[in-house]
Amino acid sequence: MSGTITIDGKTVPFTGGQTIMDAALEAGVYIPHLCHNPEFKPHGSCKLCVVEANGRNVTSCTMPASPDMVVINDTPELNEDRKALVQMLFVEGNHICPACEATGNCQLQAAGYYLHMQSPRFMHFYPPRRVDASHPDIFLDLNRCILCELCVRASRDIDKKNVFGISGRGIDSHLVVNSESGKLGDTNMTVTDKAAHVCPTGAILIKRKGYTMPIGKRTFDQKTLREFHLEQQKRVEPKDGPDGG
Amino acid sequence: MMQPPDLPDIEQRLAIICERHDCEPHRLLQILIEVQEMYAFIPPEAITTIGKHLNLPRVSVEGAAGFYSFLSLEPAGQYRVLFSDNVTDRMLGNEELMRHFCNRLWLEPGKVSEDELVSTDLTSCTGMCDQGPAALINGWPVTRLNRERIDLIADLILSKSPVSDWPPTLFEVNDNIRRTARLLGEPFEPGSAIRAALMRGADATLGELKLSRLRGRGGAGYVTADKWTACRNSQGAARYIVCNADEGEPGTFKDRILLNRYADMVFEGMTVGARLLGSAKGFLYLRGEYRYLLKKLEEVLVQRCEAGLLGSNILGEPGFDFDIEIHLGAGAYICGEESALIESLEGRRGRPRNRPPYPAQHGYLDQPTVVNNVETFACAAMIAACGGKWFRETGTRDSSGSKVLSIAGDCTLPGIYEYPFGVSVQKILEDCGAQEPYAVQVGGPSGILVSWQEFERTISFEDLPTAGAFTIFRRGRDILEAVRNYAHFFAHESCGFCTPCRVGTQLQKKIVDKIANGHGTASDLEELKQLGHLMRTMSHCGLGHTAPNPVLDMLQKFPGAYEQKLTSLSFEPAFDLDAALATARRITGRDDPWAHLP
């Protein structure tokens, strides 16, 4: 099945099996997102990419495109809801941008800027979260985890190691690692794993690399989240390459 | 912090359990439930060992074990006492009883006693609302709690008497059937529906189902014949029939009675479905709270096999093979959502799937699957036996047949009432002896809060759809407290997958708490409305979509419930500086004016 859909009035082609997000990114139409990364199986948890398709709200990274679908994406109302979702992600964790190693390279922070977030809006949860420095090369700081499961997907589908998983429920959902001690140092993760390089925030950091890139020259000092995501899409095309990694 | 207990032979014991389950990854949850029963928690070594036997990554086992409320990753004591915390339990004084229990045993909720003997906590509605306050003790329901019973339980625990030796009166559960109509009132001969279906043929029986206009009894009201037809028309290596007995909506307990007394009718409906769809395997997903019914249900299955109503060549029909397996849940409301239920059946975390595809095309093991409510299958059996026209004779145009309601709260005769669809709220209130009714929560917290001005409304898909809960509040009840209980329920039961529900249900809970504590302002009301909109429009599944319902209904219909509690300010910070100093005051033993902020 292939055909075209319209997104905010613009005609966008799609081919069989593509989601609304796939079709949009390929056509250079931006739908804000955090948990989606075209290199991995879609997940659909952050809900930033919710659009209205044929009058119904759907998650664009998991919803298959269908012929003549009418998609509404870039509206003040939807962007306002997206901003609220980003604010929710900020208050449920412990995000201290100015002191964070990932500042300037963080997609959550960039989403805040992109959606004109001026304040956290909601009350902070200040949850007690774990920090794990047991691995010689990788630092795990769950204070910054937004549960996008990109590391889970990367370790499972590309590294074939299943280093990460999610346990707990509801607000207590949290990342766990594949060892009885619960420590990353006791897993078989290595710094060359794909999973070490997909975190959109600063939850997974490579040790001894923190401040090699000065502030001012970091990714989102140079470009917006929109530009970054559209370029990311170009890097993974064409799709017949090996893993894209 | 408790010392990890010594666990000799754990590897051996687990090997036996895993072998018994054929080391089948889909049996993971069933294995974990057995481990929990054996050790009173899931030890870390057990997670590693199970992973090895089932060939699953350790994180997957830990992920599943951490998801379900009745599985505990920390030692929870020899006795685990979970007080049901539905709003009906609250009205009957469960908080006071829990305090009394804690005082008797020197306990703190959520913590294990120092002698590692007992722990206690709250749990979501256990489905005993007509005979509460209720609790689960090591998974077994105790009903009609009062001080005397609590004292008895405390003594039994202190004497370390095994729960199996406790007086049976503690565990007595009554059916309390108060009113029957065509489903519960007509005699049903086991085998009659299957015989009729075989005589009529599969196409004609599906035709009767269509003619009956039966709609799903789980609340959403999808036309059953359409669901079954979609499954029938889907290609697959096998088809599955799943009965959803994960009756988790607070205030609902009608499936408890259907399973206890009408199990044959339910299993027969599944078997008729199997004939129509060409399925050889069915599951009954039984909520953990109803584990006490497991033995009885398994006996019914054995009897049906012996009578030729299950197994191979059912009723002598060559090639008509169908088996039913009972699968236990372990405390997760979200597993009532059909795709989360399927995930749980497959042994994983109960996380709703992305849809499409729908279960009718890609369900259990990715094969075409029908998931229906317990009552829907019972109706299907009656339709197969008596015909679609007979079924349609009662009810309304868009809601044929009758509905079994679970009535509890402020009334003299709580229990099970079956009415033809179209009955008014007023009529029900009169029948059950409601005292000065002021509000009714129809369909549980995910349903509709009906005010006294709307009692003429009717139970039907056209007006007030419901899975069966009908919770009555008399004049003078604190509606804000009820809504607060519901807000806490949703926050506890959100699966945590999507942002709007995971965080939104927490924020909603915190804001309702703030208002109840007298710190709410007009801006908090506005925030609740906006949060409600966000959860309704952006969430992943029905839980998030309906979680704001009780809050928004209260804001619209019961201003009196919260207006007096608001402070006059248009804004008050959520952070209470003086309250934050409480710990410091406790440490220093001070409570003088200088230890407080002005």
From TrEMBL, chain A:
**Keyword Iron appears in the UniProt entry:** yes
| Positions of the 4Fe-4S His(Cys)3-ligated-type domain | 77-116
Residue ranges constituting the 2Fe-2S ferredoxin-type domain according to the UniProt record: 1-77
- Check the record and name the Gene3D superfamilies matching this protein: 3.10.20.740, 3.30.70.20
Query: Which keywords accompany this UniProt record?
Result: 4Fe-4S, Iron, Iron-sulfur, Metal-binding
Cite the InterPro entries for this sequence: 2Fe-2S_ferredoxin-like_sf, 2Fe-2S_ferredoxin-type, NAD-red_Hydgase_HoxS_gsu, NADH_UbQ_OxRdtase_Gsu_4Fe4S-bd
Origin superkingdom: Bacteria
Pfam families given in the database record: Fer2_4, Fer4_15, NADH-G_4Fe-4S_3
Give one GO term, molecular function aspect. 4 iron, 4 sulfur cluster binding
As for family, the record states:
Belongs to the complex I 75 kDa subunit family.
Output this protein's name. [NiFe] hydrogenase diaphorase moiety small subunit
Q: Which organism is it from?
A: Nitrosospira multiformis
From TrEMBL, chain B:
Chain ranges passing through the membrane: none
Q: Does the keyword 4Fe-4S apply?
A: yes
> Has keyword Glycoprotein?
no
This chain's protein is named: NAD(P)-dependent nickel-iron dehydrogenase flavin-containing subunit
Required co-factor(s) are: [4Fe-4S] cluster; FMN
Q: Which family does it belong to?
A: Belongs to the complex I 51 kDa subunit family.
Superkingdom of origin:
Bacteria
What is a single molecular function from GO for this protein?
Answer: 4 iron, 4 sulfur cluster binding
